[in-house]
């Protein structure tokens, strides 16, 4: 039941010939009988148009395909008795006792950090500020923690498979990381430190009002709850398929450890645990690359093999926005994506705010991005190294693995099975990335909920002593909620990729609200609110429809010429012949080019659309409000109560109201003369006409 590639080519040629003859016969028949509106498409692999089921030509074509496949199966080439079938190996590499010891050791140390900072450190986490910000932490652990916050297990497993199956164009994603540094240290973080914020969404409240602050906080809560669930589930599934480690056990271990040390130890425990996990991750990456230089090929051999198989691509200048990865989409779209993560994501802002000064925050952010670039480049190189190892026997085509994300775990477990503890160190590194992502998310979610939703949104007064207790319960609650979402997401299949896309969409809208407040003087509360909601609805609609109608990007060619096992080509051809063909109806809004945009543009679209709509709606509302003021005065500009200068200038307007008389002044008071009343928080000096 096995055959050579020559036989496959002959079979495919016969199938193509049979299809062409059938199509020609149908065409001649149609010319004689007149056009048949039910036959709009060629019949492929036995598929029939709607309403033509059971037609004679369908039956004949289906029988022809069946006979061809049967004839192919009868051309049996005796398989070597020494070779086993690739898809059913007699021996599967699994976790050894040494591997479990290393993995459990990493988890126990992470738990110990939470126990120390939660129960034994004197004066630790007794107030909300201490629990959420860590009270002036040192720069080195914060830098490591920032680095691990942006390295998820999805990327550690997905980046190598991207290099393996699609090529190196995505490597340019490190360029926008560098471009974000001046934007972060010159624009965003000086504002945060000057205002002494705990939550970055406090800025939205100061600039626009309570409604926009709550909107930003709610968007972040939704984004991070789903993202943490996917960030844990996706690598757990990949590891379980490749290593035999049970998915539910992996998920439970990650959440139990994360929820414990983030809810008990607070920001200090999160940062210190992240530092330890960053060391584990670095050791695992360097170890795999070092061993790969000996077992898979030297760097020169790796790049030579990649070049020979057309894996090296850095300058795809295709201007079409529908191309998945180009220089433009990766660099420009990546810039907006990384800006949203570094500058308007509470998980990163909160860690920078835990430092003593803006100068230290700038240094930590710069070194964190350098470390992130180093990790990404190592990860990309690992993908090319794995391709060199499997250049002549692709494990996906051979049936060794069933998904692209299983590639790296399969390579490590099978290639280094004879070296004790390598698999354990690798899986510990993957777990470390998941732990860092989830712990940072839980701590930041508790900060956003306490500061933005409870205190500001619901006007619940929380004392500093009780603040830490509230934050701990919030962290625990979000951990349980995210854990529950894992098992919901698990049964929804394609929602994994959709959730990751929505993460970029929501992050783009949030970034747009911040840019609107910083860059647009005319923006007001209603413009930001309605512009943000409208942009969110539009980009989510585009993203969801795009995921539904998207076609999977075809992989670059792979080979199975020199496999050390028998590849069951019969099953491969059989699957090709029986695979259903999706008939795409002509017309319809789902065929519009906007739904074929590369996912790399989503963050940019969300940001720019929010800024534009927010600015436009603000101008419209401002114009309407000014006309209403003229109508209220009754006599227009001739009314002495209304100064003509107000309507000629863009100066901000304040109203002073008494019981009978309303006066208007164009003089903007000095912010230093305004005192904050107790319990009111920051005063919004950017008040506009629409706020009255």
Layout of secondary structure:
Elements: H1 5-33, H2 56-74, H3 97-120, H4 128-133, H5 139-149, H6 153-166, H7 174-195, H8 202-207, H9 210-243, H10 247-295, H11 299-308, H12 327-343, H13 346-353, H14 358-389, H15 395-398, H16 407-415, H17 422-457, H18 464-490, H19 495-519, H20 525-549, H21 569-578, H22 602-633, H23 644-648, E1 654-657, E2 662-665
Antiparallel strand pairs: 1-2
Structure, explained:
The chain contains 23 helices and two strands. Helix content is 66%, strand content 1%. The protein is globular and about 95 Å long. The protein is mainly α and 692 residues long. Residues 28-32, 35-54, 580-585, 636-643 and 646-692 have low confidence and may be disordered. Keywords: Cell membrane, Ion transport, Membrane, Signal, Sodium, Sodium transport, Transmembrane, Transmembrane helix, Transport.
Radius of gyration: 30 Å
Please report which band the strand proportion falls in: under 5%, 5-15%, 15-25%, 25-35%, 35-45% or over 45%: under 5%
Which overall shape is indicated by the principal axes computed on the Cα atoms?
globular
How many β-strands, per DSSP? 2
The end-to-end span amounts to 80 Å
